[in-house]
Write a structure and sequence with these properties.
Chain lengths: 84, 318
């Protein structure tokens, strides 16, 4: 499973990033690039479906969805917890 | 944000021993609110209305120097505008839609038979193009956007409307139909944030002058569901919403009587509302819950308006 690639694919379906995903670095601020609050909720729901995880309350914040790297770290942690 | 509180509320709110009538019961008993059989849907007495009207005038006086453009809409708004506003993303559970009978003569007879027999008669009701206004400013944005780009100084509007939110409750402060007075500022981020800051000060001074214990707290809207928790967390983390809280039903859960909201470019983007330079407009609003402030006054100064402190009466009625 290539988590970062999957995240990029999901991001690409967001209006703010359509056609721009390849230009994003792992550390670019997604909010600075146009991700809004509702967009981050849609992103969260899409990630949950793709990776079969559930974000706990303490991760439901802007920081968890601030960059591809931050999302990747959160998702990796959740996948490990699910597997444990 | 500073917390401005007074211990006065604890003293006053401790006066109800268990088993005694609730605040809502006492409001009914004094005739200030009138039962309709539906929780959160009440009639108001002349005395109650005299406070609401005095508050409305007081808020007008406090904002008079800003020369806001006054607009009043009925408590219903266009369904397409409501759908575009995004309200359903955050608050599907609070929305109220207006449905009407769209059948024929036979359908009419069927409805009457259903009512007669106590069966569900609503099957032939269809959604109209009107929904109940959820917040006084919602009908404004499409109207403002239709005028074209904002002037360099932005715009300021004055609104008041009955609003509907479906949340039946026995707390008198949580009505399903209530009046909200609002000032709405549109312009650059700096302009709208300066507006919000000035009303944080003015609103606090107003409520202090009315002799009410209060605290300003960071807040979030009651977004629906798990996705809503993320929206709420984001809203709080960014300091987009503050509420002026007064203990009314309890000290532990004080009541938001005023709210100070920075929408960033949410409504600007939604309605393609532009600043003079063509960039997306930002908006902010201050909202006054007219019934809630009235109830706070009744809670803290008593149910007999004539016995309210002279300074409070002077603030309200001159």
């Amino acid at each position: 499973m290539n988590i970062a690639q999957d995240i990029r694919e999901i991001l690409g379906s967001n209006e703010a990033f359509a056609g721009k995903v390849d230009q994003l670095s792992d550390d670019d601020s997604l909010f600075d690039m146009g991700l809004d609050s509702f967009g981050s909720v849609q992103l969260m729901l899409a990630l949950e479906e793709r990776f079969n995880v559930e974000f706990p309350d303490e991760l439901l914040n802007r920081k968890s969805f601030s960059s591809i790297r931050a999302i990747g770290e959160a998702v990796s942690t959740l996948i490990k917890q699910e597997a444990a | 944000m500073d917390s401005i509180s007074s211990p006065q509320g604890d003293l006053i709110l401790d006066d109800e021993p268990e088993g005694s009538p609730t605040f809502l019961d006492r409001l009914f008993d004094h005739g200030l609110l009138i039962r309709t059989g539906v929780d959160g849907l009440y009639g108001r007495s002349g005395a109650f209305e005299s406070v609401v009207e005095a508050l409305d005038r007081l808020i007008s006086r406090l904002g008079a120097a800003d020369c806001a453009e006054v607009m009043r809409f009925p408590p219903g708004m266009s369904r397409p505008a409501f759908e575009r506003s995004g309200y359903l993303k955050g608050f599907p559970n609070l929305a109220g839609t207006i449905h009407s009978f769209c059948g024929d003569g036979a359908g009419h007879a069927e409805i009457l038979a259903c009512v007669e027999e106590g069966r569900d008669w609503t099957g032939q009701q269809e959604a109209t193009d009107v929904v109940l206004t959820p917040a006084a400013c919602y009908p404004l944005y499409p109207v403002a956007a239709a005028r074209g780009a904002l002037p360099a100084e932005g715009r300021l509007f004055d609104l008041q409307s009955y609003c509907f939110r479906r949340e039946p409750s026995l707390e008198p402060t949580r009505m399903q139909l209530f009046r909200m007075r609002e000032y709405v500022r549109m312009g650059s981020p700096e302009q709208v944030l300066a507006f919000r800051e000035s009303w944080l000060e003015r609103g606090t001074a107003m409520m202090r002058d009315l002799g009410l214990p209060l605290a300003i707290d960071v807040a979030n809207d009651p977004f629906f569901g798990r996705a809503g928790r993320m929206l709420a967390n984001n809203q709080r983390a960014q300091g987009l919403k503050f509420e002026l809280n007064v203990p009314v039903n309890s000290v532990e859960k004080p009541t938001a009587c005023l709210s100070f909201n920075y929408h960033q470019d949410h409504f600007g983007s939604t309605w393609e509302l532009q600043q003079a330079d063509g960039s997306v407009a930002h908006t902010a609003c201050v909202g006054f819950g007219l019934e809630r402030i009235t109830l706070a006054l009744l809670r803290h100064h008593g149910l007999d308006l004539a016995a309210w402190p002279e300074a409070v009466r002077t603030s309200l009625w001159g």
